[in-house]
Amino acid sequence: MLAKVHFFPLGNADTLRLDLADGRKVLVDYANMRCADDVDDLRCDLPEELRRDLAKARRNHFDAVCITHLDDDHCCGFAEFFWLEHAKVYQDDDRVRITELWVPAAAICEEGLDGDARLVRAEAIHRLKQGKGVLVFSRPERLKECFEKLGIDFESRKHLIVNAGKLVPSYTKEGPAQAEFFVHSPFGWRQDEQTVIDRNQDSIVMQVTFREGGNDTYAILGSDVDYGSISTIVQVTRGKGNDDRLLWDLMKLPHHCSYLSLGPGRGPDETKAVPEVKWLFETQGRSGGIIVSPSWPIPATGSKEDDDVQPPHRQAANHHRRVTSNIGGQFTVTMEYPSKARPAPFGYEITAFGIAMIIAAPMVSTYAAASTPRAG
Question: Domain for residue 373, yes or no?
Answer without folding.
Answer: no
